[in-house]
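Notes on consecutive records. When two proteins share a document, each keeps its own sequence and its own token line. Never mix them. Below: protein one.
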Amino acid sequence: MGYAAHAPATPEETRLARAMPHRHTHRGPFGPEPVPDTLLYELRDHARTEGADLRIIDEPEQLRLLADFVHAAEDVPTRGSAPRRRDLPVRRHGRGARRGMPSPPGRHAARRP
């Protein structure tokens, strides 16, 4: 077995690969407290700097519609045979722990109710 022929990375792919160690993702649960407006505006400004548009959705009807879209999208089959994150077994830590990260492949723990 060996590697197939491949094309060299494009400048954009190289830029994205170099940015990966500097990215941060919060994977823990969020509380019910609202995000302060000052932080929302700061995040929106950072998104604009990166050429993106962060839309702040705070109207109840808009939030309901967004939730409906997200639920509908979760039910759309994806290509490939990999299980979706929500279908993977989940590690729990301590009594009454909330959902955590999926267990690593090959180390699947039994699901608990």
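Protein two starts on the next line and is unrelated to protein one.
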Amino acid sequence: MLLKSAMVAEEGLALSAAVKLVCPRERRALLLRQADGRWDLPGGHLEEGEGLEDALAREVREELGLPLPSVRLLGEWLYVRPQRRARLVTFYALMNEAAFDLPDLCLSDEHCEAAWIGIGEVDRLDMPQGYRDAVRTVLSAVD
């Protein structure tokens, strides 16, 4: 695992689970903007009884309108938020650069914009730190 959180779950802490996908293309990563202005990676929560890659395939189909390409496990991050259940986020990355481009996407109602964002731009965006770290990990390996 490449990503680890410095935070440790306390005994008895209830966790939710989510999967996210980093899609690189030409030294940029696909990010999705939510209606509230925050940026996101494709992916979401697991449904009951669903495996990680099955959930990722469902979320990519729902959010991008695309089948899931070949992926590799990237790492995990414990996302602790005030007044909300902690979330264990499992990150995946495409095995190869994305073969799709923005016009190929059919965004869900969850997101209002998609953009290819470079590693130098990611710090200026309103998004969770673990998502930034996942993007940096994938894009820095491209060079």
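For the record: Residues 129-142 form the longest helix (14 residues).
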